[in-house]
Amino acid sequence: MFKKIAHGYLKIVEGICITLLFIIFLLMVIQVVCRLLTIGQNFTEELARICFCLMIFLGAPLTLAEGADICVDMLVNKLPIKFQKGINVLINILTCVFSVFCIKSMTVLIQTNVGVSAVAIPWIKMNWIYTAMTIGFGFLFIVAVCKAIATLKGAPDTMDINAEEKALARKKESEMNLGI
Are 44 and 34 in contact (CB under 8 A)? Predict the structure, then answer.
C-alpha cells in the first residue's frame, strides 16, 4: 500500500518536473525571439527562474528515492558492508535534519512575506512558491526516513519508478533483429 502511494507520488512529481522543464524551454525560446525582434518583455526570465526553483525543490525527493542524487562515495565503497550501511543511515539522518531546518526556515519566510508578489509577475505570490518548496522538503524528509529504514532492514533503499518501462524497452530491444 505505502509503496503504491510513494510510486504514485513520485510519478506525479516526475510529470510536474517534465512539465516545468518544458515551460522553461518555451520561455527561453520566447525570450530569444523577443530579443531578436526587439520586443521588450520582462516576465520570461523571472517565470523561468521560478519554474527552475520549483523543479529543483519538488524533484529533490524524486532523485533521492531513485538514488540519482549526487554523492562522492569512492571512499565509502571501499569500506566493509556494515560501515557502508552505517554511513548511508547517517547520511539519511543528516538529510532529515537538513530538511527539518529548511522546513522551519521556510515557515518563517512564509510568515514574513505575506502579500509579497513576484516583481515582473504580480499575480504570482511568493508564498505560493515558498509553500511548494516547504512541501518538497517535507517529502525529502519522508524519503530520507524511508531510505534509512530500508537500509537498516537490509532492503533496497532506492525505488525505480520507471522499472516497468525500462524492462519493456529491454525486452523489445532484445527481441529486435538488428540484421547484424
Answer: yes
- As a whole number of angstroms, the distance between CA 161 and CA 99 comes to 23
Secondary structure of residue 38 in the 3-state scheme: coil
- Those residues with Cβ within 8 angstroms of residue 78's Cβ, 6 or more apart along the chain or in another chain: none
Beta bridge pairs of residue 125: 117
Q: What is the pLDDT of residues 105-157, one digit of tens each?
A: 999 999 998 888 888 888 989 999 999 999 999 989 988 998 888 888 888 77
Summarize pLDDT for 12-43 with one digit per residue, the tens: 888 999 999 999 999 999 999 998 888 878 88
Amino acid letter, residue 30: I
Grid cell at residue 140: 525529502
Q: Up-side HSE of residue 124: CA atoms within 13 Å toward CB?
A: 16
> For the chain, where are the alpha helices, taking DSSP H only?
2-36, 43-66, 74-78, 81-112, 126-153, 163-175
pTM value?
0.82
